[in-house]
């Protein structure tokens, strides 16, 4: 079909494709990954902290000595050996046999992302409502959008999802006759806010969902990356029914292997496997063997400590730099684990409109709008601290603060919201709020 234009395909797209747009993060990757740019965007773990020689040797042997099995097709649910190891990993967080966790009910997935996709395939019809934190993980928004579901955000504060707001949202949706299928939540070291749902709120959130007949999709990629002692126990450790527990080795080992999992209620385990087989036939045997051998033969608990140490130091560097350098009126979260800080900008600054100026100043972040389904978040940004070194983090914040100071100065001169379409440049009045601030 030479000479075919984009328009020739538009009419043929399935309805679910129409709402698909490139994620803000993906669009930024091309520029943000240039070496001169300090990237506080992205969410990459610091892979250089792994014992790469030993991991490389192990990977080589998996091919040369065990290739006959590791390079062959496998079963859709994933190898028993890996599912047993996954249960050992979950037991560290308190999800163990006493709350019904068993290798039988684990389904191995291609990263945490396929786990989300499978849950959506299993439960979402077009028009269904998904409740999710506001802001929430950008990749989950993409999955729910592809399923033609509507995401309704529930606000958060420093203790995570606000139970009263959840109750209100549930009641309003019930009154409107909307079909809500589940709450999608990242209770521990949330992406993008870095906050953690408090002990007390965990029970309340579970109670509200139980009463409303909502399933709970608990996404927990970061729970073992705490810097200040253990996180509260996961939701799945408190309830065995109605909670789907999703996690991944992407942040605790290596995202390049693309291995994650779902611990599902027993009754739906088979449906998940069937959906996964339709999707990918089976997860990579080689990647599964890499993870199970890593967990079986290498000091993975020690490695978790290494990651925590590295990230704690970088979190401290980011918080100190923000404290020292950010313009007045900027606020941010103080995560006790995970990879991200969420910043709120002084009134009138627009993180999306500011992005090209930030890139020109050689710093990148993710504008807050990427984490909402409804365009909220212009006054926020997500800052990652896992990948850049402490020195680069400080330099990045210095550059970012410079760009923000400039925007604030411009706003003082011209009024309105700097750079946002519709802002009326050249308007008088130093502190006169422009039309965008109404
Ligand atoms: N859920 C959350 C909350 C995440 O932050 C991520 C990755 N950033 C994923 C799922 C997907 O993980 P994976 O890379 O294993 O697919």
From TrEMBL:
GO terms for biological process: alpha-amino acid metabolic process. The keyword DNA-binding applies. Residues 415-438 are annotated as: Disordered. InterPro entries: Aminotransferase_I/II_large, Class-I_PLP-dep_aminotransf, PyrdxlP-dep_Trfase, PyrdxlP-dep_Trfase_major, PyrdxlP-dep_Trfase_small. Its cofactor is pyridoxal 5'-phosphate. Keywords: Aminotransferase, DNA-binding, Pyridoxal phosphate, Transferase. The keyword DNA-binding applies. Transmembrane segments: none annotated. One of its GO terms (molecular function) is transaminase activity. Residues 64-400 form the Aminotransferase class I/classII large domain. SUPFAM superfamilies: PLP-dependent transferases. Belongs to the class-I pyridoxal-phosphate-dependent aminotransferase family. PANTHER family: AMINOTRANSFERASE, KYNURENINE_ALPHA-AMINOADIPATE AMINOTRANSFERASE, MITOCHONDRIAL. Homodimer. This is DNA-binding transcriptional regulator, MocR family, contains an aminotransferase domain.
